[in-house]
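Is zinc ion placement plausible here? Inputs below.
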Amino acid sequence: MVALVELESLQLAHDLIQTGLRLSIVRGMTRIGTRTLRQWWKDVHGVRPSNGKLPESVLSFIKDKDSAARLSAFAALHRRVNGMNLSAASLLTTWREFQRICGPMDINAAYFAVRDVRARIVMLSKCPVCHAAFIYDVGSRHTGQCPFCDTKVLG
Ligand SMILES: [Zn+2]
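Reply from A.M.:
I modeled the complex. Tokens:
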């Protein structure tokens, strides 16, 4: 018999595949084998999963002020609900909740936003003017200022 905890992992992995989360990330979060995951992906999406390289950081997904604002909001929501914890369940639950309120979001971008704030690859700073939390990084054109009110933050 499959242990309950294992069953939960299988269910989470299947749900995450449906969201379009890249398989190497699903594998890392659920420890389900690549073969099973690849088969499920094909069943769910009707095509083979991508073998392409993953982006290096959340900054690859921040292309303008709007994406900066949305990913900042997601990272802030995830932190408020889950603290610094990041798991398959926390990602899935927060992503569903976010989409219900704010509309569609690429779950891969959402994952990188949370991962990179945790790993301190980017900072989740608080805007001194509007007090919103936002992803701050000097290295990118759209993350050097608050995407909600345009206040520039001096590094
Ligand atoms: Zn602001």
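Short version: The mean pLDDT is 94.
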